Amino acid sequence: MDKKEVDALRQLIKHSKRAVVFTGAGISTESGIPDFRSPGGVWDKYQPIHFQDFIASAEMRRESWRRKLKLDELIGHAEPNSGHKAVAELVATGKVACVITQNIDGLHQQAGVPDEQVIELHGNTTYAACLDCGKRYELQQVYIIFQQDESLPHCDDCQGIIKTATISFGQAMPETEMQRAHQETLACDLFIAMGSSLVVFPAAGFPQLAVRNGARLVIINREPTDMDEMADLVLHADIGPILQQAVVDV
Ligand code: NAD
Ligand code: ZN
After folding, report:
1. Contact, 7 vs 213, CB < 8 A?
2. Which of 39, 119, 216, 217 has minimal Cβ neighbours within 10 Å of its Cβ?
3. What is the Å distance from ligand 1's center to 4 Cα?
4. What angle do CA 130, 136, 138 make, to 5 degrees?
5. Could you tell me if 16 and 94 are in contact, meaning their C-beta atoms sit under 8 angstroms apart?
6. pLDDT digit string, tens, across residues 132-187
7. How many CB atoms lie within 10 A of CB 20?
8. CB of 193 within 8 A of CB of 224?
9. Residue 20 near residue 184 (C-beta atoms within 8 A)
């Protein structure tokens, strides 16, 4: 790892008055959750179930809960890693105003970032919710019913369909979260994108917006991204070790 690059990152953080951290699947690989693009990962085994099909078909809903149970066996016990912890430290010191994440694993909150400072653009897979009234359901409540005879869960209050609280392909982006992410991006002077291939839009529009608005952009990612050219600093490295060093003394 290049010490000069880590120092440059530390300086940028030190001189920032209000920073935003933007994360993708890459920050969670060190917790054992495969990212989207790695071949043979859990994600490319199945064609994704689109939102419209989930709504239209009870069999699709059953298939989606079957997959969710399998996925939980594989990664349900993942714990935050040193990258998540370093981000939580930056939030605790007040340097970082919020974490905008594409991840659905809840590991930023588990690492200690307060709920209200995590903006989840693609929802959260660690609980479920009614699609009609929004009432929250814990996964265990769903599993108890589903595992008996694959009965599908329905909302106690309104009989609506219950789904994990993630944003599926074909589902509208969450309005409040998109608005908050927009505001926070415009309010920051430093935008640090980490562990994202920056190809999934509209999420990947935020680093672009930050640059257009005059903020500094840092990209930390193992592989090059199409946005490297517009960044003030690019680190092609693993997130955990880099961040641990960069957050010392900021
Ligand atoms: P992506 O898989 O497209 O890109 C991840 C990037 O992180 C890759 O370019 C990879 O080189 C890099 N990377 C992997 N491990 C790294 C590490 N330890 N240090 C530095 N870089 C590392 O991820 P994306 O941009 O977030 O897009 C994928 C979509 O899939 C998102 O919309 C997300 O919602 C979803 N997803 C979420 C999770 C999760 O919640 N943990 C996991 C997989 C996919
Ligand atoms: Zn309901």
Report:
1. no
2. 39
3. 26
4. 110
5. no
6. 999 999 999 999 999 999 999 999 999 999 999 999 999 999 999 999 999 999 99
7. 26
8. no
9. yes
Q: Which domains does the chain show, CATH number per domain?
A: 1-33+80-122+173-250 (3.40.50.1220), 35-77+127-166 (3.30.1600.10)
Q: 3-state DSSP call for residue 183? A: helix
Q: Which amino acid is at 75?
A: I
pTM of the model: 0.95
Report pLDDT for 2.
80
CA 219 – CA 248 distance, rounded (Å) = 19
| Ligand 1 atom nearest to CA at 195 | 7
What is the model's pLDDT at position 38? 67
> Which residue's structure tokens are 């993942």?
78
pLDDT class of 42 with cuts at 50, 70, 90: low
Lowest mean pLDDT among 39-43, 104-108, 214-218: 39-43
- Which of 31, 36, 105, 235 gets mutated to test ligand 1 (max ligand atoms within 8 A of its CB)? 36
Our CA angle for 130, 135, 138, nearest 5°, is: 85
Catalytic residue among 84, 122, 182, 236: 122
- The verdict on the CB of residue 33 being under 6 Å from ligand 1 is yes
Q: What is the pLDDT of residues 50-86, one digit of tens each?
A: 999 999 999 999 999 999 999 898 888 999 999 999 9
pLDDT tens for 77-105 read 999 999 999 999 999 999 999 999 999 99
* Cα(97)–Cα(186) distance, integer angstroms: 12
| 15 labelled catalytic | no
